[in-house]
Amino acid sequence: MKAVTEVRPPLIARAVPYLPLGLFAALGASLAYVFRLPCRTGGWNDQTTVYTNFCYTDIFPLYFDRQLAAENPYFAQVPFDKHVEYPVVLGEVMQVFAWIARLLRPGPPRLVEGVQAPLFYDFTVVFLGVCLVAGVLLMAAVAGPTRRWDALWYALAPSVILAAYINWDFVAGALSMGVLLAWARKRQVLAGVLLGLAIATKFYPLMFVGALFLLTLRTGRWRPFLVTMGAAVAAWLVVNVPFMVLAWDGWRRFYVFSQDRGVDWGSPWLFFQNKGWPVLGDMDVSTLGMASLLLLCVGIAVLTLAAPRRPRLAQICFLALAAFMMTNKVWSPQFVLWLVPLAVLARPNWKPLALWQVAEVWYFFAIWLYLLGQPPLDRDDLGIGDDTYFTAVWGRVITIGIMMAFVVRDILRPHKDLVRQGDVDDQGGGVFDGAPDRFTLAPATR
Length: 446
What we know:
Blueprint: H1 11-15, H2 19-35, H3 37-40, H4 47-52, H5 59-65, H6 88-104, H7 113-143, H8 152-156, H9 158-163, H10 169-184, H11 188-199, H12 207-219, H13 222-246, H14 248-260, H15 268-275, H16 285-306, H17 313-327, H18 336-346, H19 350-372, H20 386-412
Helix pairs in contact: 2-7, 6-7, 7-10, 10-11, 11-13, 12-17, 13-14, 16-17, 17-18, 17-20, 19-20
């Protein structure tokens, strides 16, 4: 008998279902650009204008303050705190578009800032918009054919449109979704390379390592995990070592900044300090944050190993990343871009997602109104006070906590998991999909 071979549809036929999602993502990227036009057309130098129009972006100030307008920021002969405070992949993405802006509008940056800086902004935003489209399409592929349209949340969620171009987070977002898709397709080397690049772009994809480790521990699928980790380490070293050797101060700026940074906007620790709480408001925030994160990670580990059925990869990634954000020293408005795709993949139920979006939208407007009332502006007539601002801080904490609780419930009661309806295990799990348990803390069942 002849073996029956699987016949895959042509590439165009496979791509057609994704076309509407790509168009919706392009719409979301365009709406985000329009929303920030007040800053794009000349208002970036006036803080009051920036905050009252809710159009703040790091793209303009970093272009000048981190030497992007003149030279490679990692190699610049400047004070240590003027080196770019981002990992090298992201820093070099910035540098590419700075080169393009300087090439098209040559001359001293301050003399041509009216045309050079907007060019840098436009090219950067177009690239970030492409990253959003890529991230949405990759997320749809990770979700699988039964949940493909869940990626609309990433394309058009209000918080995504509002926070889209504050920073360069969509680059890490596309790489992160690429990691999950490569893992889902059992391409471990590619998953590792993308993971290494993602960690060298923004640090948060490091939380995926813990999720992969826990599920590997439960299933005993060690070879794919080790191959992925080896490829990740190799990719990270390839892009980092040249800067470590040739531009040590510029390279280590990100790590020193992350370690020394104090409590900042958006973090619950800021509330405790502001209100003078005993212990929580007095202790070193780095110590408190690390201890809190460690405690939550231990809880996630116990949950992963003791659940009656192996959790899905997206569920553990979401819980780990949410724990990282809730315990961090800073919780910037754009961090929502990290969590949206994972929250939807973990639990695509619209009610808690919509509640969380309301909280994120309120925080987005609250932070800029709050900064209006802070020095050096002190515009109390336009801004809001401490108590009103902290309602927004706790709104995010509480709504994400609610989503985490629902995900935990789905893990403990798998029949409640929307993704697992119809005898589906874990479409994004790769080698974990359908894998039996090798090590578990779950009670034995007859």
